[in-house]
Amino acid sequence: MEIQPAAGRAPRPIVIAVSIGVIVVIWSFNFIAAKVGLYYLGPLVMPSFRVVFAGITMIPTYLLCLRMPAFSEAAAFWRRGFAIRDLWTFLYLGFFGVTINQICFTLGLHFTSVSHASVIVGMGPLYVLLLAVLFRLERATGLKVVGMLISLLGIGVLTSEHGFSFHSASFLGDAITMTGYLGFAMYVVLGKRVAGKYDTLTMTAFNHFAGALIVLPVALYEANRMWSSGYWPPPWQAWAAIFYMAVFGSAVAYVLYFWLLRYLEASQLSAFTYLLPVLSTILGILLLGEKGSWIQVLGGVLALGGVYWIESGRESGVKVNATS
Fold this sequence. Notes:
324 residues, mainly alpha, 0% strand
């Protein structure tokens, strides 16, 4: 999916570089915030609260962006109004791209380490490719097959770090995290079919609204259960983690990301997200006391190397940037 550069004067390269760096840092700390929140909240409370608060945060973000010239297409769509079919589109895209993606991202981190989860997140383009081949949007060439096998070998190395077992907590967490990004890949593939109809801000905002509405009953149930058990309100550390993930991990990072897409192709922007697993792993070691190993390094290099092998040889098709 090629992104055409925006008309008018592009920002200076230093501004674009700093913006990319901000996104990578925000999403790297997203892993840390999720881990901190999970220390104080249950594995269903934290992700459900995160999704609902992200949807709420996107309301003022969307209304503010409508006033900006950079998002004139979204303002035009808002004035034109919505049809029932539009709402259905946002509902199923929000289910895959927000509900499944963000719930599984946070829930998976309850069972696995930041280093494992960040590598699995960094493999987002591989999941999109698999679904694009199944939906016949791309062909499975020899180069792509080799890249997929290399990445899968890397995942195998990661999961065997402490001995391979389907019952291990790390394996369960890795599987949940991968499920979340398969959900995001489904969102990208399905979104490709309606990409010409909606601008990126409208898609992002209303998919977050839909995801929040889907998860809202779960969040209310968990809040009532916490109230009944005397554990309400949660400690400030939990609220800080939720606030960070909703405001910075969703609203700020997404707006910056889609602003950058006006001046860069998606493939150019996605190349910088290979820094995400590296920075996230370092933060996990420094801030959470996680232990690194050469097995993790080998598995991560193989997994991300396979993705890079695939992406470097793709001239067209559905491309995606990893998000969390």
